[in-house]
Design a protein that fits this description.
163 residues; Nucleoside Triphosphate Pyrophosphohydrolase
Length: 163
Amino acid sequence: MATVESARALLVDPQDRVLLMKLAAARVALEPRALAQTFWLTPGGSLHPGESFEDALLREIFEETGLRLSHPGQWIWTSPKRILRDGRSVDTLARVYIQRVPSFNPMPVALTVEERETFRELRWWSIDEIANSSEIFVPRQLALLLKPLLTSAWPADPVRIVP
């Protein structure tokens, strides 16, 4: 079974808020019980054939948020996981990049048909809002993972995280 690779972005604004997108779990679920739920995750998506993680990230960020980045930022996390897609298990590997960006009003400009079906909204979140929310976040421990990134230096080498 081939691994589906993706690139995701932690976009951090001057108020230390992170941009997240809300999706409805349709044909893709992180776990069986999530099929009828919504969840928040970082913008990004799958690599096209022959595309690098960095090129995919720049493309996906523009498509999903309208923001044109000149560079992908720093690769900080690697996140392998197994998801359900169309009722089948699929192994995935995400690289997560971080960078500071100015505050802006995000708006999708080029979603695929599948993305339009599952996309609900984009929103800037503070760590406290994430920590105190009853919403589902991917990765699950997002608030805990974000705290050191916003209070100290970013890791020199990517860290493996669990979803």
